[in-house]
Amino acid sequence: MSLDISFIGILIGSIMASSVPLILAASGELITERSGVLNLGVEGMMIIGAISGFALMVITDNLFIAIVGSMLSGVIISLIFGFLTQSLLTNHVATGLALTIFGIGLSAMLGKNFVGIPGKEFPILFSSLRESIPFFGPILFGHSIVLYFAFALPFLTNYFLKKTKLGLVVRAVGDSPVSASNQGINVVLVRYCCILYGGAMCGLAGAYLSLIYTPQWIENMTAGRGWIALALVVFATWSPIKVLIGALIFGGITILQLHMQAIGFRIPVQFLSALPYLMTIIVLVVISRDSRKIKLNTPTSLGRIFYKEK
Amino acid sequence: MATDLRISNISKIYPGCIANDNVSLQFKSGKIYALLGENGAGKSTLVKILSGVISPDNGEVFLNEKNLKLSSPLDAKKNKIGMVFQHFNLFETLSVFENLSIDATEDNKSLRVRINEIFKKYNFSIDLDVPVLNLSAGQKQKVEIIRCLLRSPKVLIMDEPTSVLTEQETEELFISLKKFCEEGILIIYITHKLKEVLSLCDEVAVMRKGKVVSVSQTQNEKVETLANKMVGQKLAKIKKKINISKNKDEIFKVKHLNFYSDDPFETNLVNLNFSVKKGECLGIAGISGNGQNELFQILSGEIITPDTSIIFRNKEIAKLNPKQRREYLMAFSPEDRISQAAVPELKIYENVALNNFKSSNFFEKGLVNERKIKEHSKKILSDFSVNTDNVELKSQFLSGGNLQKLILGRELITAPELLICYNPTWGLDVGAINYIHETLIKINDQEKSTILISTDTEELLKLSDRIAVIYKGKLSKIMPSEEVTPEKLGLLMGGGSID
Fold it and tell me: Which CATH number does the domain housing residue A241 bear?
């Protein structure tokens, strides 16, 4: 295999594509967690998004409806989580785990009739530019609109949290819900919104898998990506830009180690398969060493149930 | 414009406790009002109602004869009622400016201008762009006050504002409050500290067990009269009979205590030598932050220092940890009740079991003997008149005074020969303070010894047989307490020297 420059361009393009679901789900979960809510149901919400997106595409033959529908399904399933944790004050961890198990089971049941149906080709943008420019063409062009959105999302999230009033409110609620409530902020409402937003992003991440990345429905097709997204948020110390870096490293090493396996490096396959997890954690730990920054970015009230005094 | 705040017939009932019982009060701008009462008298409930955090079961609030509906903190804000809570309502990880801008309606630029105007007017100075967690307690309080001022309040309520402040910060606060008052802001000052009421406030309302028991002009009151109203009974004056006898045995002897730390927040200790006799109380005075923390931790065995010799009952114990020291009949009552002395999330009897001394038999073959611990805990609760007999209650629901009684009870049940306590009455109300003082005197009467590290001069003069002052990690010479006056102590505590 020749490692010429255009091959590297294509490789980078495929790495970007493989990290899109992680970026989407992790950015959504990041907002949820910044408001102090720990939703471990990312995997469940993603898989529901994947099946509802695919099913809607098959039924309506309209990709726009499929994408919007997958986000809505993410919103609906996260609403269950929101109602349980915010209105009925259940434990975040247990509820999130239940949501994942529920999502995987429900998606398998709904997906029975959609196994083996071929997907539809998703339109890609600037496909002519992709071919005409060497190296940069495959990196910058010829992707779906969802990919461009995903790569803009961490920057938008960062801007939202740091520069906007609403972002400030979200951080305040995550820091101290009691103080926020005493300042007249409706903590439960803010948290509901953040949970639903996280749900929508996870639904979109799932739909990306079943409509764009591997356009078909396979049972359990998220294959643990939800958990990786969750881990990314923590190891990136709740910083959106670091989430992007982490997702790219994870996607990059996943693709690279597949190539290495194919080439036949004399390294045990198990080690190569473990490499993406290992490297992502190491890199994120190294770039997030500043304990002061960690303290400032960590939502202090994460996972704690908030009661309003009456 | 004059402000007139009237609360009429406010009641708030919690299960098992009437927090506010038909409270009616009237406040007018241009004066500073004190709301005085012991912990649990219902002051905090009342101000939470005024700030819209909780709603009353009954009763109404009128501002300038307008009936206010305070069903959320937003309502209080809209009606220009500002509130500075005892436990700060700040966002620790956000910057000072973010904390101030969160409920502002204007853009950041003009907000900064307004904040700087307030800084200039009241002589404040705080870096707006550092996170709040880097600020001192006094600065945090200023941020809270500025947040209120930004909304140009008519009423400003301060809930026990000085409990976390140093004396210097307290003085600054009082100056600011008087300025606010002159500008026509109605100030309601909640406290249980009598002296503050007399030095700052014009009128005082005393609350006890949810009721207003008296409203009066402070100029007609004295510390004693207010204390009696607050507690509801005549407080016995406590003064210890000083007993110094030369021929008593030295039970505890410290030599060459040195401590060096790289941490800029710790104080180094330089060659401390002292001893305690049987049945004696040795007081160690000083302004907080002069090495008391470190001294307490070394005496209790939390920190082991090399080359130090500590002889207790003729044995060398300098290398022993706190548990081993307890076996030799030492007992400790640290300053911070919540985080050092007790675990607030644990039940009372579980906290009692934490002091697991050898003879207790609390644990047998690795199993918890719950029956025994509970029996033992009940005895502590009744012996030390803690206001509950429910050993299953979580410790965090005890008031400061009751928690301190529980801790002292836990420590004293082993009949220790030496009790070391650090600010045992910090933040407590008069009734509880009296009780703790009586207990400490009783210990000395039983020929047991105490070391009292305290920042409260009055307490030290009341309880100690001999007193030394710690300043910047150095100990002054030890003086018999009849030779010591408050002035002398103050001089030494400030770093001066006598004769």
Answer: 1.10.3470
